[in-house]
Amino acid sequence: MPRKPRATAKSAEPTTDWGQELAAFGPDPQPPEPPAPPASDEPGRLAAARAALERLATWVPIRSLARRHRRRIVDHLLSLTPQDRYLRFGYGASDEQIRHYAQGIDFNRDEVLGIFNRRLQLVALAHLAYGQPLPGGSGRTMAEFGVSVLAQARGRGLGRRLFDTAALHARNRGIDTMFIHALSENRPMLRIATAAGATVERDGSESEAWLRLPPDTVGSQVEQALDRHLGELDFQFKRQARALSDFVDSVAEVKSHFDTSGRAAKE
Ligand SMILES: CC(C)(COP(=O)(O)OP(=O)(O)OC[C@H]1O[C@@H](n2cnc3c(N)ncnc32)[C@H](O)[C@@H]1OP(=O)(O)O)[C@@H](O)C(=O)NCCC(=O)NCCS
């Protein structure tokens, strides 16, 4: 049986304003008023342009993670509830099992994708494991996808974005099949997979989803390169902003210290 998870410092933060933290990741999943539905006779080209604009407006910076991010990966996974660990790994992973899993990620072979909030907290994480043999003994390999999004950040399309990005990366590596193992009760995960065109095979409490990927093109390679640069830029920008904010905080702290001692001296 899984051990009771250890509360991490980050998950215990009581003051995080998640609405503000997540504003950059698109609209609130429960907006006060739903947007007006598009006119039914809208021409196809206009609809496509609108979809492209929406995609651009809700662009989410996704970053490829490396070995040096292992601690953040562990923190993210440890902050998942027992139920989420069960959904993510197919069993109620203990803290020790999570550390072991994170330690075993092969960054040379696999890809790990992450989405950071303004405080550089990893709010969403995907692992694309390459080299899994395709059933049937053809000798070909597939990529297996696993994902988790912090509970506070769900319903904003982050899981879907990570899925789409992982599919793009796998495709650009010449992989033609992406595989997802999920519990049959995991409706959000199966919804993401089926919406992308995956075939789902249910076997009791477990399901397997198979997504066929098209061959890569110049466009798909350019898209990945562009995303990578923008994701990196966004991360560096957040890092600078955080350093600046820490600096302003420490100046304010020093100032308040001098104000207090000045007042005390006068008194
Ligand atoms: C699965 C998970 C990653 C989804 O993350 P997310 O960021 O909330 O996903 P998205 O916002 O992209 O939404 C996913 C889709 O599921 C749908 N959905 C959400 N809850 C649902 C529910 N209870 N039933 C059916 N569909 C649901 C959403 O409407 C959305 O579909 P749409 O875009 O067609 O509207 C997240 O729930 C999670 O981390 N779960 C725990 C770990 C896990 O289950 N990992 C997957 C196994 S590898």
TrEMBL record:
PROSITE patterns, per database record: GNAT
Compositional bias per record (Pro residues), positions renumbered to this chain: 28-40
Name under which the protein is recorded: GNAT superfamily N-acetyltransferase
Domain of life: Bacteria
Organism: Roseateles asaccharophilus
Gene3D superfamilies, alphabetized: 3.40.630.30
CDD domains for the chain: NAT_SF (cd04301)
A Pfam entry, by short name: Acetyltransf_1
Region spans: Disordered: 1-44
Residue ranges annotated for the N-acetyltransferase domain, each copy included: 60-216
